């Protein structure tokens, strides 16, 4: 397994089942999808950094999440609300962007994530329109890029669909460690990852 893989992924297989195992997730964009992901990830035991550059959007996200999560979860370190991508990804094992599914937006956010994230961070981007191979080419870590092949609106409506399939698309460079990390994340959230290669 590559040396850059997060420590938890390099532990013995039995450790994957420990409840106290901490996975740090950066969610870029605090709209409906970002809020839904933050809630599900926090409930599954992940540490979450939710980012949005618009103070109003982040404020509304905080208020909505406060209503949905217990005081114990929100009062701890499970969710932190931040205003910059740099703060969101500083310790991230996995970064998920929630920007529009448009080429310019995706290329810009992946370029920023690649520039600001530590070497181990994996990028997962929801897209049904774009090639993960093409998007990953704008980074220096194509092996750590994977697509969530579902529309953001569809994902955000999965609140009560525990056990539903989450389609993941890999590019030719996507590593097995990346697939396992992202698959494990979705399993923790209560969903069933289905991995397929692009093309």
Task: List the SSEs and their pairings.
Elements: H1 7-10, E1 24-28, H2 32-43, E2 47-51, H3 55-68, H4 71-75, E3 79-82, H5 85-89, E4 94-97, H6 103-116, E5 122-126, H7 132-136, E6 145-148, H8 152-156, E7 165-170, H9 176-188, E8 192-197
Parallel strand pairs: 1-2, 1-4, 2-3, 4-5, 5-6, 7-8
Antiparallel strand pairs: 6-7
Strand residue content: 15-25%
CATH architecture assignment name = 3-Layer(aba) Sandwich
Helix and strand run: HEHEHHEHEHEHEHEHE
> Mean of residue pLDDT?
86
**Overall domain count:** 1
Structural class by helix and strand composition:
alpha/beta
Give the distance, in angstroms, between the N- and C-terminal Cα atoms. Answer: 25 Å
Cα Rg: 15 Å
Molecular shape: globular
- What level of helicity do the residues show? 25-40%
Low-confidence stretches: 1-20
Top keywords for this entry?
199 residues; alpha/beta; Rossmann fold; 8-stranded mixed sheet; 20% strand; globular; disordered N terminus
